[in-house]
Amino acid sequence: MAAAMSAAMAALFTLLLVVSPVLIHGDAGGDLMKAIKADQRLHHLHQALITTGFSKELIKAVKDKPVTIFAPLDDAVDAATAAGWVSWDCLTSTKAGKAALKENLKHQVVNGSFYTVWKLAKTNQVIPADGFPIEVTFDKATHLVSLDGYVHVAQPEAIIMKNAIVHLTDGVIATESNYANMLDVCGEAPPSAPPSAVFGSGL
């Protein structure tokens, strides 16, 4: 009986390791980066975190306190950089581009808070790492959470860990100053739309 119970517990533990979104071997920051890298829709985010060095700050933050991340899908980043006339290669390869991109990454991360979609639906505003507030609205009809009125949470709680939660977004949230800075250092041509329109459908 004891042997059968032990076998059942072992099987259950193995199943949890396979299906659970929470990686449990104790390295919260490292686990988060592995989970982001493993998601094929977040290649650009992973690249941005690594090339700018912001991954180190994120890993440290996750070890110390809860973190919420609004992670733009690759398609959103591609659409944004194209519509905003900003070179992604420049943002991820030049010193000035990396610095500008890093500042915008800070606008995607909320330190010290674990915002589930339920909590977001009851929140009017969150303060990301750069200190510039993001307005949050919840549409009861569509059940969509919107950020600053133009970016939507496309898949809430895509990654959940002990000290981190990641929501996938259909656009990249950017302040006007961040967009202007990225355009200044990595712009390819004058933009034809304001930042809210450009970055609402991508970066």
TrEMBL record:
FAS1 domain: residues covered: 29-173
UniProt signal peptide: 1-24
Keyword terms of this UniProt record: Signal
Protein name as annotated: FAS1 domain-containing protein
Organism, as annotated: Chara braunii (Braun's stonewort)
